[in-house]
Amino acid sequence: MPSHLPVIVVGGGAAGLIAAGRAAELGAKVIILEKNKAVGRKLLISGKGRCNITNNGDINTFMENYPGGGRFLYSAFHHFFQPELLQLLKRYGVETKVERGGRIFPASDKASDVVQALLNYARTNGAELRTQTEVLEIWQADGAVKGVKTAEEHIEGYAVIIATGGKSYPATGSTGDGYKWAAALGHTVITPRPALVPLNIQEEWVKELQGLSLKNVAVTLTHGEKVLAKEFGEMLFTHFGVSGPVILTLSRLVVEKENRRELKLHLNLKPALDEEKLDKRLQRDFQKYQRRQLQNALDDLLPKRLIPIVIRLSGIEPAKFVHQITREERHKLVQILLDLGMTVLGPRSLAEAIVTAGGVSLREVNPRTMESKLVSGLYFAGEILDIDGFTGGYNLQAAFSSGYLAGESAAQR
Ligand SMILES: Cc1cc2nc3c(=O)[nH]c(=O)nc-3n(C[C@H](O)[C@H](O)[C@H](O)COP(=O)(O)OP(=O)(O)OC[C@H]3O[C@@H](n4cnc5c(N)ncnc54)[C@H](O)[C@@H]3O)c2cc1C
């Protein structure tokens, strides 16, 4: 039976809100402590404000999408997975839709609807929310948790769930506080590092394309002669280099590389065509626009902003008439379209990463309950754990599943 003392949930993000809702639903007294003025700031900016809640893949597909720590989530997923999450959201008024790549979003395209639903889940079940309340320390004695300390008071609890998130996008409130507490309580914290992070690129032409987003491209990451990985999908040029789903997925390998000197990205602008087919395609376009200058003859093939860059890199005079283009020059264009090289300088900072890799070591947390194996009554949920997923809704599902299980286990202590 739940004691008269509360379950204290530290952090009102994805993991904390669902943990609080589930613990309260099971009859526990629950207090959520959130240092911001309002809950769910990171959730609100997730998926560009649309919140990619989860993915419609099965558990095996999910497992392939956590480069860090996915297997730890088996129990949590068997307990509360994407169908249960969608049902819960539906109960609180959020209808959902599936998009490309199995990504699931609220039908309204509003992340705020997801935050509101989670808040309603917690509140209607009786959880108390205290915002602008920053936890400074976890209070423990003799290997058992006693509660938490804020600047004003000691709050006693029979269980504490740390759901303070990672260390990226610190303006949302995730400043890595939970890592310090976990370490102070004897937990191993795997050094937090950026995952899903944009990349700095050396070539200046990349910066000229700032804001241009490309769909259906293939990007290969190489180190010297070695191919490290290839991804297909969407990417974006920025003022410092590149970002977007394909780049974010590849970024983990860049972060992991100690020697980053020979890292290169190879952008294939026409992955559906091989060299021969692309050459034929160019010949057709050149036939069609034979009286035009090259700079005006590539509109059918490329986004407008890319045309001058591709021509510059090919070394061909942009004003040259298409009928004067030599076979060698056309072949050079084909090469560039299939392999536009970019020198990787390195990842952007942890603050700019979508997700933090590293965190509380999974070896010291029980995957069936999310309880610490070192301090009884202490639970971890969400991004604070040493788990990170690719883009596609995998990070939020990890936060929801681990949060739900932590809330349930804490209530059932
Ligand atoms: C720009 C962006 C877009 C993203 N888009 C997606 C997406 O579409 N799909 C997806 O799956 N994932 C996405 N992610 C990742 C996903 O948002 C996170 O993995 C997820 O929100 C983690 O949830 P959490 O509850 O563990 O932590 P958070 O959501 O970070 O919540 C932690 C909370 O704890 C509070 N807190 C911290 N320290 C204290 C303290 N000392 N006292 C009190 N409160 C404290 C914070 O203020 C915060 O509210 C995105 C991330 C970013 C940055």
Notes on the protein architecture:
This protein is of the alpha+beta class. The chain folds into 2 domains: 7-193 and 356-411, FAD/NAD(P)-binding domain (3-Layer(bba) Sandwich), CATH 3.50.50.60; 198-348, Helicase, Ruva Protein, domain 3, CATH 1.10.8.50. The protein is built from 13 helices and 19 strands. Strands 12-15-14-13-16-17 form a 6-stranded antiparallel barrel. A 5-stranded parallel beta sheet has the order 6-2-1-10-19, with helices on one face. The radius of gyration is 25 Å and the shape is elongated. The model has no long low-confidence stretch (mean pLDDT 96).
Class computed from helices, strands and strand pairing: alpha+beta
- Looking across the biggest beta sheet, what order are the strands in? 12-15-14-13-16-17
Bound molecules: flavin-adenine dinucleotide
- Main beta sheet: 6 strands, antiparallel, barrel
* Helix share bin: 25-40%
**What best-fitting shape do the alpha-carbon axes yield?**
elongated
> Can you tell me the residue ranges where pLDDT is under 50 for at least 5 consecutive residues?
none
Distance between the termini: 8 Å
| The CATH H-level homologous superfamily of the largest domain | FAD/NAD(P)-binding domain
Number of strands: 19
User: CATH class of the largest domain, please?
Assistant: Alpha Beta
Count up the helices: 13
Question: What fraction of residues sit in β-strands?
Answer: 15-25%
C-alpha Rg, in Å? 25 Å
Judging by the overall fold, what is the CATH architecture of the largest domain? 3-Layer(bba) Sandwich
CATH topology assignment of the largest domain: FAD/NAD(P)-binding domain
**What is the average per-residue confidence, as pLDDT, rounded to a whole number?**
96
Tally of separate domains: 2
